[in-house]
Amino acid sequence: QKEVEQDxxxxxxxxxxxxxxxxxxxxxxxxYFMWYRQYSRKGPExxxxxxxxxxxxxxRFTAQVDKSSKYISLFIRDSQPSDSATYLCAMDQTGxxxxxxxxxTRLTVIP
Amino acid sequence: xxxxxxxxxxVICKSGTSVxxxxxSLDFQATTMFWYRQFPKKSLMLMATSNEGSKAxxxxxxxxxxFLINHASLTLSTLTVTSAHPxxxxxxxxxASSPSTYSYNxxxxxxxTRLTVL
Lengths: 111, 118
Fold this sequence. Notes:
heterodimer; A: five-stranded antiparallel sheet; B: 118 residues; mainly beta; 11 strands
């Protein structure tokens, strides 16, 4: 079983839609949960990180962590064509940067 | 955010040759640099972690004699793929981090290097 599972998509939505991206994981020791955005031929950039369970909001983006279910989500409100990218979840046990990544979900927002 | 560059962005080489990839932190000093490999539709896989001035720590299954990592300064790390073969063709991404006053040391990623071995 992989440490982190993520549906690779692709996912296509119309502009303005709410997007829901999810990951599940098997290692209950993970404490830090990140979402990265990766544009084509670029490195990943950190969107949000959450420590332990709970919600975190930043503009149109909301990250949720449910440690009891080993499930994390990223919601994008009012999606824009510029949000079209691959979104990767990543997890870390100690905050010492040993990251475990999901495969990434490729998102396309259609104008 | 902090900027990390990689050079070259793309390289094509013949089987048996060695290829060096550079990773630089442009506006901060990176005490730790990481090298990842990314296959299409697969996760980013950590290959090794390096701290400035010390030997790299390789992940299980990564051949340290094949993937030579040097972290000579706080702003530069290099990955050399020695005697490259077609199965080494991949997207190699570096990242860098430095100690933070916050609880999480963010990694800043470079744009990646596409290696194609013929």
